[in-house]
Amino acid sequence: MTSTYQQMIFVNLPVNDLDASKKFFTELGYTINPQFSDDNAASVVISDTIVAMLLTKPFYSTFTNKEIADATRTSEVLLCLSAKSREKVDELVEKAVAAGGTASDRVQEMDFMYGRAFDDLDGHTWEVVWMDPAAVEG
Fold it and tell me: Are 22 and 42 in contact, with CB atoms under 8 Å apart?
């Protein structure tokens, strides 16, 4: 039996308040992996292949010589997660708002796709998108 390698993505995000950010993401239904978490970082397990690493700004700065962007004022990246259905898109955005995030007023609606977005506590934008499987196959 051969194993298939699954490439993973670790999204590293600077945060102002690590405890508040951990609470935010657990309220969205994600878990914290304590094996890769400490006072400087929290490993948020989004799926088997997606992990968000929440890093305090001083710790984050040890990985780059660049200035850390203020995500509440500028955009450097849009993080996009897939959802199983239109209802799951709305559900995740509603959970984010209930946990202290901010919903975007932009809704992407096409025959084969539906998407919404929210900003987390630090202003990082997360898009949530459902695509009709028939459209993807076709």
Answer: yes
Q: In 3D, which of 22, 68, 16 has the Cα closest to residue 42?
A: 22
- Residue 9: what are its φ and ψ, rounded to 5°? -125, 135
pLDDT at 89: 98
Q: How many CB atoms lie within 10 A of CB 73?
A: 7
Left if phi > 0, otherwise alpha if psi is -120 to 50, otherwise beta: which for 13?
beta
Is-contact 100 121, C-beta < 8 A? yes
Question: Residue 118: CB partners within 8 Å, gap ≥ 6?
Answer: 92, 93, 96, 97, 101, 102, 103, 104, 125, 126, 128
Residue pair 121/23 in contact by the 8 Å Cβ criterion: no
What is the pTM assigned to this prediction? 0.90
